[in-house]
Structures are given as C-alpha cells and as structure tokens.
Amino acid sequence: MAVQSPLSLPDEDAGDGSRTARLLRFSPKKQAVTAEYAYRFDPVGVVDPGEDDTSELKISSVVAVGRDRLLVEERTDKAARLHLVRLDKGSDILGNRWDDPATRPSLEELDEPAASGVPVLRKRLVVDLGAVDGVPGKIEGVARVNGRTLALINDNDFGMTDGPKAFDEDGRLVDSDVETTVTYVRLPKGL
Q: Where is this region: Disordered (predicted)?
C-alpha cells in the first residue's frame, strides 16, 4: 500500500514541501501493517518539467511484480513516471522513531533523509510516461497485463473542471471534455 502524499508531520507545510512518502506492507492474515518504507519522489521538475510545486507529487498506483518488488507510479496531473523498488528488510522503518509524531525533525521535514540515516528505498526508472506517445494526463491506475505490457487509466474527475470556469453563467457544470481512457504501454524490457 502507499500513502498518496507525504504526511503532514508536524504540519501541512512540512507535508507540502516534502518529497518523502511512505509505502506500507499489509498482512491480510494478521490484519496489520507489517512493514513501512521511506519512498523518495524525484524532484517535481524531473517528473513534470512544467511544474514547480512539490505538493503536486502523488503516488496513485502501486503494482506488485513479485513478492518483494513494486512498480510505483510518481505523478502530477500532467506527467507520470514508473519506478521499480524492492522492499527489503533493511529498509523497514516500522516502529522506529520516524513513526513517532513527536520526532523532530520529522521524516517529512528532512531534505536528505538518507544523509540522516533513514534507509530510503532504492528505485529504478522503468518508464517515463511523458515520453510515450498517446498517454493522457492524470494517470491514476496502472495494471500489469504481462511481463512487458502495462494498462494505464486516467482520471477525468467525472468531466468536471477546476476553478472559476467550472460553472457557466447559469450555474451549470461545464464539461471538461476529458475522456476516461485506457492506454497500453509496452516496456522496453520485462519487469
């Protein structure tokens, strides 16, 4: 499981400015979280060259590709990248000081968590979806079709637009004309 954005520890400003989110291992049998990992986003300008607001970084999908490996989607509303991570025991931070909300600085406040001794997950870029023709914005769902093919789905927010142009002069919702689309992407090599 993934927390979509960095936690607001100790406050919203810390969460909005952080590039460190948390991945959780959940055991259905134990009905409990059994491990926790620090996941470091790439800088927002790397994920989306047109964006400079770190709080726009999100994790919308994680896909299991083996017992201890996940494909993690880092995204903004306009761009997305998929990284492969391995959940190893040496990177588990569950139950340590980073879980204590009184810890200062918090995990989310650290500019360089690894330099502070936090075992941040290593990751490998699998595909930059911004470089793939035909991939729409706001990808929020990823599924593995086979070892080299992924299915992606975007979120059209039910056709709603944001801001002052969301409603016409009569107060009716203005359709964004953004369609929900399933797109298939073939990876250069298998996972």
A: 1-20
Domain membership of residue 102 as a residue range: 12-186
The residues of the chain scoring below 70 in pLDDT are: none
pLDDT at 113: 98
55 found inside a domain: yes
Pairing of strands 182-186, 149-154: antiparallel
* DSSP state, residue 173: B
> What Å distances lie between residue 156 and 68, 181, 185, CA to CA?
32, 9, 19
Average pLDDT, the chain: 94
Residue 154 maps to a domain: yes
Distance between CA atoms of 172 and 160, rounded to whole angstroms?
A: 11
Q: Report how many domains make up the chain.
A: 1
Residue 125 has a pLDDT of 97
Residue 2 inside a domain? The answer is no
Place of tokens 């620090």: 38
pLDDT at position 189 is 85
